[in-house]
Write a structure and sequence with these properties.
This protein has 179 residues and is mostly helical. Helices cover 58% and strands 3% of the residues. The chain has 8 helices and 2 strands. It has helices spanning 8-19, 52-63, 65-73, 82-86, 88-95, 105-116, 128-143, 149-178; strands spanning 36-38, 117-119. The protein has a two-stranded parallel sheet with strand order 1-2. Helix 7 (128-143) packs antiparallel against helix 8. It is flat and about 50 Å long.
Length: 179
């Protein structure tokens, strides 16, 4: 089993072609509600940039699936256009490529992402790298069987809480300045 993202399909399809491996797609198990993370690079144009119109043209170019179709067909990228997730004609006739996107891809990747996607936490919260550097090694001890989940989380809780408290204080200060 591989837990990954859309970028995995390029390598998986190449391995399938070379080694005859058959693969399918399934969402990860969940507890109360299904959810999946949207991961990607936010696209930003600053309003006071010297070359706003040119920047806008560039963004329009590479967000148009017609200009990135090879990356979509290879399995490396997904588009960000909602229509491509909801229009079955586009899904079946423009997106999917036999040998790259298995039959399960439509429901387990395209439709699932469209219905249950939440943005990755680093879009809205700073310091995620600092938090990751704390909790990921702590969870490694759980996967290695040297710690319980409770002990692992307890070992980093205070440090993570301090980072979150700092972020909350910074947000409050910015809000106060804006008033």
């Amino acid at each position: 089993m591989i837990a990954g993202g859309s970028w995995s399909f390029q390598a998986l399809s190449e391995a399938a072609a070379e080694d005859g491996i058959r693969y399918e797609v399934a969402p990860l198990p969940y507890f109360d509600e299904p959810v999946t993370l949207g991961i990607g690079t936010p696209i930003v144009i600053f309003k006071d940039t010297q070359h706003y119109d040119e920047c806008l043209q560039l963004v329009e170019f590479f967000t148009n699936p017609e200009n990135t179709i090879d990356l979509i067909h290879s399995g490396l990228w997904m588009t960000s256009l909602r229509e491509w997730f909801q229009n079955e004609d586009i899904i079946n006739n423009q997106w999917l490529v036999e040998g790259v996107h298995p039959d399960s891809y439509v429901d387990a990747a395209i439709h699932y992402l469209d219905e249950y996607m939440q943005p990755m936490h680093y879009y809205t919260m700073p310091y995620t790298d600092q938090i990751d550097n704390l909790y990921i090694p702590a969870l490694d001890s759980v996967w290695l069987g040297t710690s319980t989940p409770e002990d692992a989380i307890a070992s980093v809780y205070d440090e993570v809480q301090a980072i979150c408290d700092r972020w909350t204080e910074e947000k409050a200060a910015i809000a106060a300045e804006a008033e």
